[in-house]
Amino acid sequence: MSQKPPSSRRPNAKPNAAKARPSKPRKAPAQPASNAPKREGDRIAKVLARAGVASRRDAERMIEAGRVSVNGQKLDSPALNVTSKDRITVDGKPVGEPDPERIWLYHKPTGLVTTNRDEKGRDTIFDHLPENLPRVMTVGRLDLNSEGLLLLTNDGGLKRKLELPSTGWLRKYRVRINGRPTEDTFAPLRKGIEVDGERFQPMDITLDRQQGANAWVTIGLREGKNREIRRAMEAINLTVNRLIRVSYGPFQLGQLKPGEVEELRRRVVRDQLGLEGAVLEEKRRKPIRRRK
Q1: Model pLDDT for residues 103-121, shown as the tens digit of each residue
Q2: Which of 143, 196, 208, 271 is catalytic?
Q3: Which residues partner with 210 through β-bridges?
Q4: Residues 6+ apart with CB under 8 A from 269
Q5: Alpha-carbon span 64 to 80, nearest angstrom
């Protein structure tokens, strides 16, 4: 029996293996879009809101509707930054320079709704604000039967910043409740409580005094959920019959009377909120009332 000639293949070679091809140089990976140079300035919707044209959300709708142009070119998206050098028009009319960030203290009376429009036809706070105020937005809300300090601002970005729980500002309320509570009554609220599936953070509660059938307490919150204090008190079988917000972070209600509005000094706004761009200090404006 004849032997087969030895194979010419290398010992480790695989049968029918394709011949090795010279490797081509790989292309450098594309740089992510986030590394592209960003256009200076602020988003167009923010600038329109600061200029008093509309709220930021409404400004975005106006842009999508084709009502806003920048440097003669109609926009179809709010994803654009603009500077003071850009020429902005809305419905063909030029938009003025945006105002600096401003904050007003307002003593909200009871019986007014904190919204621009009410579907039930009830009076809103905007129906009773002084006529010489520019377009303003509320920082948070107070419900119909609550009163006290409500912050107003002309800047949507500032509004959102002040409303964030991460700001960490304590909001204090003077609350009158029906009943005769003791310190132990409020133990569940000091630990944190769940009401209707919603978790409320621990409250700072001080029992101040008993006045007849009612007791006065001071409550501090670091986030304000819808009717939080009233719902929490109901959970421990107490009823709130008066609720007054007396402070919001460093801002105090002070001696403001119901319906009065007072603007904060711009220096105070800048210092408290860490805003850039110093503005000359102006004299503190006296409280103003809406004329009847």
Answers
A1: 999 999 999 999 888 888 8
A2: 143
A3: 215
A4: 101, 102, 103, 275
A5: 12
Angle value at C-alpha 101, between 249 and 77, nearest 5 degrees? 115
Token pair of 61, please? Answer: 């709708």
User: CA 289: distance to chain centroid?
Assistant: 27
Both tokens of residue 47? 């600038």
Nearby residues of 82 by Cβ (< 8 Å), 6 or more positions away: 41, 42, 43, 44, 47, 70, 88
Beta bridge partners of 108: 148
Residue type (1 letter), 199: R
Q: Per-residue pLDDT averaged across 261-275, rounded?
A: 82
Residues 203, 157: Cα–Cα separation, whole Å? 28
Q: Whole-angstrom Cα distance, residue 247 to residue 252? A: 4
Pairwise CA distance, residues 62 & 278, whole Å: 32
> Has residue 90 got a pLDDT over 60?
yes
Q: Which residue do the tokens 């909120």 mark?
A: 273
pLDDT-derived band at 288 (thresholds 50, 70, 90) equals low
Phi, psi at 104, each rounded to 5°: -120, 145
Q: Measured between alpha carbons, how far is 26 from 19 in angstroms, rounded to an integer? A: 20
Average pLDDT, the chain: 82
76 counts as catalytic = no
Whether 173 contacts 148, CB under 8 Å? yes
Q: Give yes or no for residue 208 having a pLDDT over 80.
A: yes
pLDDT band at residue 273 under the 50/70/90 scheme: confident
**Which string of DSSP letters, residue by residue, matches 212-226?**
TTEEEEEEEESS--T
Ramachandran angles phi, psi of 184, nearest 5°: -65, -25
Residue matched to tokens 């904060």: 264
